[in-house]
Amino acid sequence: MRVRASTIFKTMSLAAVAGVLLAAGAAEAEPARFRIQPEASDVGFKATSRLMDADGKFSRITGEVMLDPKDPATAMITLSIESASIDTGIGMRDTHLRSADFLDVARFPTMTFESRRVEVEGRRARVTGQLTLHGVTREIVVPVDVQFSESALVATGEFKLNRRDYGINYSSFLNPIGNTVHVTFTFRARAS
After folding, report:
1. Which pLDDT score is estimated for 66?
2. How would you write the chain as a 3-class SS string?
3. Residue 99 neighbours by CB under 8 Å, 6+ apart
4. What distance lies between CA 154 and its chain's CA centroid?
5. Which of 181, 127, 132 minimizes the C-alpha distance to 157?
6. Using an 8 Å Cβ cutoff, are 187 and 41 in contact?
7. Are 48 and 178 in contact (CB under 8 A)?
8. Which position has the higher pLDDT, 133 or 3?
9. pLDDT tens digits along 127-169
10. Which residues does residue 58 pair with via DSSP β-bridges, in sequence order?
């Protein structure tokens, strides 16, 4: 489930960047580049299980958005999250989430998102892109709310993913785990 959340986070990050780029495009005449500020950004997730739900976050995030203000729909967003940066506040659980049962960080150290299409309506955007998680790439669509200026942007959103779509099939008879992971994100980026 945490893997799912990370995927969601990446997707949201990319969507947020796309929204910012689109907004920046209206304010500037030249293409703009915004870099995600990991220390000021947040990708969180919630997964459910019979005994104890898992709330957590990923802390190591990088990415950028390239935007032509004259044509925001051509924005390009890339995002990468280090899978091992998962943190639920419980060390033993985090170790299990990093194992081959879930994220398998030894084989799949990063989750990535690359935008393919951006649709903008006011301060809202729908970003379609390729999310790669646990070695599986799937197209997802992420809704994003964006606030921006010439020098900075903030993108927020939430979405749900099914962990089994990405080959994360761990199950437990004693503590059944839900397949749906709820992901929330806030991305802050600065013009570079």
Report:
1. 84
2. CHHHHHHHHHHHHHHHHHHHHHHHHHHCCCCEEEEECHHHCEEEEEEEECCCCEEEEECCEEEEEEECCCCHHHCEEEEEEEHHHEECCCHHHHHHHHCCCCCCCCCCCEEEEEEEEEEEECCEEEEEEEEEECCEEEEEEEEEEEEECCCEEEEEEEEEEEHHHHCCCCCCCCCCEEEEEEEEEEEEEEEC
3. none
4. 14
5. 127
6. yes
7. yes
8. 133
9. 999 999 999 999 999 999 888 777 888 889 999 999 999 999 9
10. 43, 86
Measured CA angle at 113 (ends 43, 157), to 5 deg: 40
The tokens describing 88, both together, are: 């639920």
Structure tokens at 93: 């659980």
Residue 53 Cα to chain centre, angstroms: 20
Amino acid at residue number 32: A
Q: Contact, 8 vs 136, CB < 8 A? A: no
Do residues 182 and 48 make contact, with C-beta atoms less than 8 angstroms apart? Answer: no
pTM: 0.79
Confidence label for 7 from pLDDT (cuts 50, 70 and 90): very low
Domains of the chain, by residue range, sit at 2-191
The yes/no answer on whether domain 2-191 falls in CATH 3.40.50.12780 is no
> Which residue in 127, 148, 172, 140 sits closest to 14, CA to CA?
127
pLDDT above 60 for 20 = no
